[in-house]
Design goal:
Length: about 260
């Protein structure tokens, strides 16, 4: 395992929010080998957490998936700075993806990346961002996107959890709620990309209804590679430290190896 921290993905930026960490499954991959790349996007309601919230996650995903894993920070919404709202978070995720796939600035492990096997994996608000990147046509290089405990329908989320308005209104203007929801952005973009939506029955913060409705919308619109997995893998954050989740990601990457 090899780890590289705080790599700047926005040229000349001094903002730590524009850095990412990279994990290689082995310190020295075999010569001329190509490995899948996983871009993992953290959650935290668009306002908290960072790339090191769960330190074990990057190494675990790299090891179990035999993949290069990149985990970026992105700018977070605060009450003090109302300008950091949608689409700021999404733009940063797109910048991180562009940095990784373009190789205009070489980074550790870039020579081992199989650019035909790039996967977006996101948790909670990170799942929202991963799917928005695909459905807005800005992640067409991605082979697949996997969301766990994801938010896909902001109006529906607020209907189920009215108290969540407290953090949602920090990250979005009310007129953005629908157009910023993956459920309402399903069109032709990303039709060839594999989607996997995972929810734990023990998730105390985001119920499986978000994933179920989004999966059905994708299927109804003709997306052929959609998997819905609702199972018992722990609480909202606990699930990220469970082998069951790491194995789901590994299986998802392996199933798209063609």
């Amino acid at each position: 395992m090899a780890t590289y921290k705080d790599i700047v993905y926005v040229k000349d930026s001094a903002d730590l929010c524009h850095t990412l960490d990279i994990y290689l499954p082995t310190a020295t991959p075999p010569p001329h080998s190509l490995l899948p790349l996983i871009l993992y996007i953290h959650g935290g309601a668009w306002r908290t957490d960072d790339k090191q919230t769960i330190p074990s996650l990057g190494p675990s995903l790299a090891h179990h998936s035999s993949a290069i894993v990149a985990i970026p920070n992105y700018r977070l919404s605060t009450r003090a700075e109302s300008s950091i709202r949608h689409p700021t978070h999404l733009e940063d995720v797109q910048s991180a993806l562009y940095f990784l796939q373009s190789c205009q600035q070489p980074y550790p492990g870039h020579e081992y990346v199989d650019h035909k096997r790039i996967y977006l994996v996101g948790h909670s608000a990170g799942a929202h961002l991963a799917n928005m990147a695909v459905l807005t046509g800005n992640a067409q290089s991605a082979r697949g996107v996997l969301g766990i405990g994801g938010i896909y329908d902001i109006p529906g989320l607020l209907k189920t959890y009215p108290s969540y308005e407290d953090f949602v209104e920090m990250a979005f203007w009310p007129h953005q709620y629908q157009e910023a929801s993956p459920l309402h952005r399903v069109g032709d973009e990303g039709r060839d990309i594999a989607f996997m939506l995972v929810n734990s029955v023990e998730d105390e913060l985001v119920g499986s209804q978000q994933a179920v409705r989004f999966a059905q919308k994708l299927i109804d619109r003709g997306y052929r590679n959609v998997t819905l997995a609702v199972r018992d893998i722990g609480g909202h954050y606990e699930q990220l430290e469970r082998p069951e989740f790491w194995n789901l990601v590994a299986d998802f990457v392996a199933s798209s190896k063609k």
